[in-house]
Structure formats: C-alpha cells, structure tokens
Amino acid sequence: MGFKCGIVGLPNVGKSTLFNALTQTAAAQAANYPFCTIEPNVGEVAVPEPRLDALADIASSANVVPARMNFVDIAGLVEGASKGEGLGNQFLANIRETDAVLYVLRCFEDGDITHVAGKIDPLADFETVETELMLADLESLEKRRATLEKKAKTGDKDAKVTLQLVDLALAELREGRPARRADVPEDQQREWKMLQLLTSKPVLFVANVDEDSAATGNAYSRQVEARAAEDGAVAVVISAKIESELALLEADERTEYLEELGLEEPGLNRLIHAGYDLLDLQTYFTAGPKEARAWTIRRGWTAPKAAGVIHGDFERGFIKAETIAYADYVAHGGESGARDAGKLRQEGKDYVVQDGDVMLFKFNV
Questions:
Q1: CA 175, CA 238: separation in Å to the nearest integer?
Q2: Residue 312 contacts by C-beta under 8 Å, 6 or more apart in sequence?
C-alpha cells in the first residue's frame, strides 16, 4: 500500500533537508533560496521495526523486507499561494495528492539562512500556510456548490450527499477553521475523502530546532507543541541538520553520535512512527526461510482485506489465516514451537488483524 505524507511549509524552514535525511539521498536540492524544490520529490522510507529483525533471526530468513512509507517534499508555499502566487497552484495540487500533511516549522535562529518573513515565528508560519490551504479549499468548494445544488434539485442522491458535505466543510472554512474540524458522519467518510480537501487531511507538526535543542526542544518548539495540542494533533521535535548528518554515518557511528547528543534514537524514527500513527496504520508480518516481511494495513482491517495487500487473489479466495501473536512467536522460537504450545490459531473471514500478528494465509482461486 502506498501512503504519502506531504512535507509542507514556508521556504527555508528545512523541508528539503528533512526530506534528504528521511530518504538518505540528495534527491531534493536543499538551498538557501525560495522554490529550490520546483517539482515534488517522492521518497520511499523504511519504517523502523525491530520486531521484524527478531522474526527474521528466528525464521532464518534469507531476506528482510520492511514496511515502507512515502514522503513528498513539496516546494515552499508563500502568502498568496491560493491565488497562484509563487507557483502556488502547482504546489497546492501536489498537496492534494497526499494522505497527510507534515507542517515543518522553523524553530531555529540562523543568520545565514534567510526567512521569507524576516523573523522567526513558527506559529505565524503555520497560520500563513494553513490559511492558504483553507482559502484554496474555500474557492474550490464555492465553485462546485452551484453545480451540485442544481443536480440535487433533480433528485440526484449522490449530489445531495455531496452537497451536504460541501456545506459542512464551508461552514468551518468560512469561520476560519480547517475542514478537518467538521463532524463528518461515519457512513459518509468515503464521500468526504472524495472531496479531496487540502485541510481535511490529518496533520503532524514538525518543530525543526537547532542542534543544541534536539534533545530538549526550545521556546519555539514549545509554542508549536502547545499549538498542536489545541488542534488535537501531535508535534515532533527534530533537528533536520542533525538527521542529515546521521544519515551519512555507519550504524555504529550513528549510535555513538546519538549518545553524544543525549538522544535515544534518531528523530526520524519518531517522525516516521508518528506519521504511521497519524494515518491509523499498523503492521502484520509474514516470516519464513525465504523472507521475513512487514505489511502495512489500516487498523480494524479483517484478515481477508489484510491478505489482499499481498495479492488480490489472497483476498478473493481467502479460506483462513494461521495466526500467531508476535510475543508468542518469539517466546516459543517460531512457528513450530508456537504450534506445539497451542498458540497458533486458525482465524476466519471476520477476524480483525492485530498489530504484530504473524500470519500465513490459506486461499483458493
């Protein structure tokens, strides 16, 4: 499954530096001028998962295949982007294609890196970017509403549902609130997503701090954390500069460097896991001599739907799933030991997959 998190913010806040560190490549040009990223860069990132290595050791797997997420580095937005300023239309379209938005906010002072507003104010930066996204949504919905209203009056049921959702979003946007604040009925979530609103996407606040503040944060990052809490969102404190340096080190050097900085793990690990949680994702595993692999699914998915992530035939011809909880698999030394201990379960079509399940699907097509 492909899940995309869009890295969004004003120019020169560290978006491309963060993206480079995430993907451990130099695919995105990080430079001290606006619009150095003209096209969105997409990078696939392995989701850090120590459980997968443990399973591979037990199963003597020849290959280890982690779950992956996509991060999209989107060029810096500026005030007026909703009206096309600064290549705004192109950038807004790129954001529309993502599943979630990561607001990267500058929380560091650096006289060598120019801020477009001439001052460091992460909350003002956030308001600028989100206002442009709200204005773009407002304009888009107001243009669509007249056509929907005409169709709804003819008795078109789909148009009626969509019109109700459009009005729900407009009510929030006209009050200066993002569309994600709207209370959308559970049975209309699919139609809501089809509106492709920029401000309906889940958000994650990323406070990009200086190197000395990576472990403890600073006054700026604490403002960001407080603002995220107001929005019911999560904030991750990270130093993009440190992460870009870590990305170039070997594993043992990385561990030593983290210890020197007083950090338990790379900030990117926390960021990736936060993005995973933001999209309501979880992991199940398959393990055997050929490979140990992590598979990404939504929380609440049943066994047949989870099987479909491997191959559509697995879902269509699903019979049952042999399932072992991760803790049981490890405690009993693998599939054989878990089976002997009575910890291997036969699960049917209604089984809701749990995070960490080790599964083998039986199917027939």
A1: 32
A2: none
> Strand order in 281-287's β-sheet?
63-65, 291-298, 281-287, 358-363, 318-324, 345-347
Percent of the chain residues past pLDDT 70, beyond the cut: 88
- Quote the tokens at residue 143: 């243009």
CB 312, CB 297: distance < 8 Å: no
Token look-up 């309501």 returns: 280
How far is the CA of 313 from the CAs of 319, 346, 349, in angstroms?
Answer: 11, 19, 14
> Three-class SS of residue 177?
coil
Q: Which residues of 323-352 are buried (b: 16+ CB within 10 A; e: fewer)?
A: bbbbebbbebebbebbeeeebbeebeeebe
∠ at Cα 342 (340, 348), nearest 5°? 125
Token pair recorded at residue 194: 């089809």
Tens of pLDDT, residue by residue over 177-235, are 999 999 999 999 999 999 999 999 999 999 999 999 999 999 999 999 999 999 889 99
The encoded tokens of residue 70 equal 């996509």
The alpha-carbon radius of gyration of the chain (Å, integer) is 23
Crossing angle of helices 122-153/157-173, nearest 10°? 150
Residues 96, 94: Cα–Cα separation, whole Å: 5
- The sign of the dihedral angle between the CA atoms of 206, 208, 209, 215 is positive
Give the H or E element holding residue 256: helix 251-261
pLDDT tens column, 232-247: 899 999 999 998 888 8
Q: DSSP labels for 305-361?
A: HHHHTT-HHHHHTEEEEEEE-HHHHHHTTSHHHHHHTT--EEE-TTPBPPTT-EEEE
pTM: 0.84
